[in-house]
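Researcher: Here's a chain I'd like modeled. Treat it as a single chain, no partners, no ligands.
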Amino acid sequence: MNTEAYLKEINFCKILKTASKALKNKTVIIYGTGKLFQTICKNYDLSDLNIIGICDKKYNDEDFNKKEMGYNIVPSSKISEIKPDCILISTLKSYVLIDYLKDIIKNPSCKVLSLLDFDKKNYCKINFKKTKTTCALYCKDIYADEISSVLKYRFNNFEAKCYITNCNLKKETKIPGYNLSEIKELYENKKINSVLINLYGVSLDVYKIIRELEQIGFDKSKNIYIISYTAFASDLLYYNNKVLSKTIKLYKDFRELPMLKFLLARHCNLNCSCCSHFAPLFKQEQFLSFEKFKQDLDRMKSLFKEIRYISLLGGEPLLNKDLIKIIKYARQEFPYSQMDLISNGILLPKIDKELINTIKEARVYFLISRYPKIDKFVKEEAEKLLQQGLRVKYQEYNIESFNKRYNIKGNSNPWEMFNNCNSRICHTLVDDRFSNCYYPTTAEAANKYFNLKLPCKKSSINIYNKSINAKKILNFLSKPTLMCKYCSKAEKIKWHIEPKECKIEDFFIIE
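Model: Modeled as a single isolated chain. Structure tokens:
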């Protein structure tokens, strides 16, 4: 959400009118002259506020009484001399400045308020219990204190007692970190009554997190709340309460898709044996066109306003001539999603400046796999891209072997396979079909090539089915499909190029 759209969203005209009326005949200093205040000055009339100066941390004593944006500059050190009746904070993270400014002015009669929160009717409508909510934060430790402070500022009945950590190493924070067994004890002893999960920086596998919390006794329809990845990445957590009420939701109302994978080319210029995407089976070029990509992404956006992770892969995605248009459109529609492009690196020398600039401007992570015969060459080319400012991540280890795990007999325990599967969050969309991993959507190629009857369509959903919605999709993704029976414990095979004549045993465990 850009600044102008945000100000319209919170009805800033009404907030400004309320502030002007309440502060009539009062002297005001505005603290914070960044993008937010500049946008306010450009689009709104502040003449009804008696602004006697503007202040910001960038100003020093030498700037005192100079002019900027038509207002007198007042450094922080001079505020106590000016003796304003009120300081209005015009920043998103106003909560971190209130105590700081009160210490500076040392004048109890001077009010320090957030300009964006001035409208008292705009208080948050999040469905926290009327009784005090004592919450455990499920978040990355570096964000624990920050989130706790924001929510304490926003809610009188909210207290973050601790945060949940799954590792032995605990960072030094104001609120303590506990593992899940300790959290269970706190919950049973009624020291906490809810959990708030911040998805920014934690596992993509939100389904696993929810199952862990449900085993303790938490209920996703009553006391498990979510801050989405997109909301935190776009700073919505720090916005006005009206926006915040749309940012924190009970898990049962949560509608963010963890991952969306597109196969931009089904064929490949490397053709590894045992390829999990069955690329060697495509003897002719087969691309995902920009028009089809746009149609599919638009459909997914109509179902999910937020997608945490968008992945562009293949086959080999650099073979797709529509790649630039695809990247630009994906970033346009999902400005805060993390996005990556996965390549074997063979075509790196042929990347032109337009594609380099597109990848850079769209903030795409360029992930490059390592294969034995081309490793040295690809690494040298990847270093060149790094020097040009691209976010290149060169795989740390060389792929010496592939995992053969597709079980042709279909006699595996689906829940066992699902619970131990690292690919269950690799949600992939191919030919209108969407599933929790790539196997159900890519194995249709094996059905055609080897004349098999794998239950691909029964293990995926058609995104254009009129009865489908985000809730049904998320529920579908959280459980095993029929294709999980056709997975098994992986057998390692030495990496090699697939012969022209593909054999079924090169992809499937037969015995």
